[in-house]
């Protein structure tokens, strides 16, 4: 990466003001805001030279801890190489002298590929308006590709990785509806040894901040004082993603929208299915297979892939 740094230039037009970013010598025009979260926002930008569009994730850091978390995210982007995991195009950290926010210590700009189809969440929301269900084969095709990305993380050497915030909004779709796993800011070592109430509370607080409630594994709602949390938190989230691909939203989104406790619903493990459904019982069984409340009874990713392939084989035989 060269040392030209990042400068932000406001260029006045006759009707509106357009923001420009210069990141490591490349100039981008900000076109629109794509999304905003508690820790960052994402803008659609266009490279002024080749007119190619990208997504720029901006992360404002208010402390040394924030900076470490952001650098960890960048490291995950740079070391993970898988066709179903998003790639980092470029990045830059501002320094304190470049800050316009007096409360910020620094700001990170991450240049990422732009997928104009949007996320799996966007895709499912559009289809939900007229109950346009995906067919079983397409559901399983997308699901197996997501599983392959998760397997890559869980098998990563020398230290396995858990995503910890797997959800439909963190899965982009290519023009061919191939899934691309994104937002690696929640990634962490797959296995965590919890030793005492202080450790438990720290992990529980982190999960509350970084892991979306309606896709969060039960063991992260109430972390026991002495336990091991492992990569099977992602398997629970996979079950929620699979259910969402079938019925447009996580089973616990439905609980949340009713105003009921997602925490209690997750701990009970009770998931309901519509009375009329285009999906076979094998699909529901695959969801149940992932949504085991007791993490020690929950399968690892290889078993999930095997079961999903069995379901796909049955569908292809019938077709």
UniProtKB/TrEMBL annotation:
<keyword id="KW-0808">Transferase</keyword>
<keyword id="KW-0418">Kinase</keyword>
<dbReference type="InterPro" id="IPR052239">
    <property type="entry name" value="Ser/Thr-specific_kinases"/>
</dbReference>
<dbReference type="GO" id="GO:0005794">
    <property type="term" value="C:Golgi apparatus"/>
</dbReference>
<keyword id="KW-0547">Nucleotide-binding</keyword>
<keyword id="KW-0067">ATP-binding</keyword>
<dbReference type="GO" id="GO:0005524">
    <property type="term" value="F:ATP binding"/>
</dbReference>
<dbReference type="Pfam" id="PF00069">
    <property type="entry name" value="Pkinase"/>
</dbReference>
<keyword id="KW-0723">Serine/threonine-protein kinase</keyword>
<feature type="domain" description="Protein kinase">
    <location>
        <begin position="28"/>
        <end position="312"/>
    </location>
</feature>
<protein>
    <recommendedName>
        <fullName>non-specific serine/threonine protein kinase</fullName>
        <ecNumber>2.7.11.1</ecNumber>
    </recommendedName>
</protein>
<dbReference type="InterPro" id="IPR000719">
    <property type="entry name" value="Prot_kinase_dom"/>
</dbReference>
<dbReference type="GO" id="GO:0004674">
    <property type="term" value="F:protein serine/threonine kinase activity"/>
</dbReference>
<dbReference type="InterPro" id="IPR011009">
    <property type="entry name" value="Kinase-like_dom_sf"/>
</dbReference>
<dbReference type="InterPro" id="IPR008271">
    <property type="entry name" value="Ser/Thr_kinase_AS"/>
</dbReference>
